[in-house]
Write a structure and sequence with these properties.
Elements (H helix, E strand, L loop, with lengths): L2 H24 L4 H22 L20 H17 L2 H29 L3 H7 L11 E2 L2 E2 L5 E2 L3 E2 L5 H6 L3 H21 L2
Antiparallel strand pairs: 1-2, 3-4
Amino acid sequence: MTGWSRIARRIRVPVGFVFAAFYLWRARPSWTYMAAGSVVVVIGVGLRAYASGYLRKASELTTTGPYAHTRNPLYLGSLIIAAGFALAARNLWIALAMAGIFVAIYLPVMAFEEQFLRSQFPGFDEYARRVPRLLPRLPPQRSKTGFVGDPGLSAATGPRGEFSLHLYLKHREYNAALGAAAVMAALIFKLLWWSR
């Protein structure tokens, strides 16, 4: 792991809080832009929710569901959410800052996480050759034995290859929806207060 990857992993949450303050300060929402941004945010939150119901962290290489299309559906969902909030904010500086944070913080974190997966799971390299890192491949590519991510069974969480509400709740992914709702509520408050 590079020095910057290590730093990026540690600072991504504090950077997020600092950016949230900047975001609310610089945002210039309008009802039209907030409505359009909300649609995009809901798509991103939905993707994250869907992906979390497949993810078995550190216990197996997840290659089913959205992971058959992209190796990082959670980060793709976050990127879509960020695009929605950038649209809702109606501010170029916010959009540029979000893009900068994604490149400087999240790309190195993705690379670090992939190094970990490569060290833990012998099949990761084949999976990585078939499935793109971020932008999804539709439909999923076939491997020699079938689609990438052919399902098996797990007694704890149900059939592998199917969405598991247990995993969604275990990962507390509902916090993404709650956070998105809180930001939208803050934008509505700012819009009402700003228009007085």
